[in-house]
Amino acid sequence: MTVLVNLIVTLGMLYVVPAGLRLIDPAGLRTAARLWPVPAALGALCLWLPRGIPATALAALYAAAALALATRAPARLLEARRRSRAGGSAGGAPPRTTVSGPAEVAVCTALVSPSIAATALVAERAGYRLFGFDLDILALTVPHFHFAGFTAALVAGLVCRAGATAPAIAPATAPGSATLSRWAAYSVPGGTLLVLLGYFVDDWAELAGAVVLTTGMWAVALLTWRDIRPGARDRTTGALLGTSAAVLVATMLLALWWAAGEATGITHPTLTWMAATHGLGNALGFALCSVLAWRRLTVD
């Protein structure tokens, strides 16, 4: 399981995060996206070293970059609130990269998530049971907040943003899509937070978070399939979007099964099996395909 988890995390650090930053704000986050591979490479390297001072030091450097990224979130939320009160931009509509409301909540959740992952990484590499959690749980928190945290919130925000400000991407949204996209943009960050809080409360709280997160991700899948995919410029982009939507249905069902098993004691997959199915599916089938597709959709 360790090798598989490390490969998944490496993908998230080196490609998914910097590519996602360019999708969030190509201008405002250009420098951060360009420089991100440097600390990401250090973070990825620490995964393959034995626990100890060298691995911890490299993880701490990555954590510093992740914390710096997280500081961008409050400023974006304040700007979104200011724009909302002012009624948008001078032209009457906010630019695509600074949409207020639920899309901005999701985007800011994405910006904060790597710092949570990096904090867990530092503790795990130091062999320190942060908040009393087993090292295996800390190790799995790292991919969880790179993908369920960063990528899931990012895509939920992009889907919400597309319906509101980029009709060329979602040209024929169905009735109710706006409400559904707002639900996705709020419930994915909310569900992720509830899952995190469930770590500190009990398995039932974690199950509640899994339910909220799953419904949000299934909303993302439905909107991607029904509203975003038809606007794809070519078959490759459409296939990437279709794959990401289909994979979410299966992987989030697995997440519900695991959370329900932990809470009720019913038979459920092991962590190793979850890493090989839910984790790998989300990393490759959802996150990678989504980022590649949205890069193709938004390229000028």
UniProtKB/TrEMBL annotation:
<feature type="transmembrane region" description="Helical">
    <location>
        <begin position="237"/>
        <end position="259"/>
    </location>
</feature>
<feature type="transmembrane region" description="Helical">
    <location>
        <begin position="56"/>
        <end position="75"/>
    </location>
</feature>
<keyword id="KW-0812">Transmembrane</keyword>
<protein>
    <submittedName>
        <fullName>YndJ family protein</fullName>
    </submittedName>
</protein>
<feature type="transmembrane region" description="Helical">
    <location>
        <begin position="207"/>
        <end position="225"/>
    </location>
</feature>
<feature type="transmembrane region" description="Helical">
    <location>
        <begin position="183"/>
        <end position="201"/>
    </location>
</feature>
<feature type="transmembrane region" description="Helical">
    <location>
        <begin position="6"/>
        <end position="24"/>
    </location>
</feature>
<dbReference type="Pfam" id="PF14158">
    <property type="entry name" value="YndJ"/>
</dbReference>
<feature type="transmembrane region" description="Helical">
    <location>
        <begin position="271"/>
        <end position="294"/>
    </location>
</feature>
<keyword id="KW-1133">Transmembrane helix</keyword>
<keyword id="KW-0472">Membrane</keyword>
<dbReference type="InterPro" id="IPR025450">
    <property type="entry name" value="YndJ-like"/>
</dbReference>
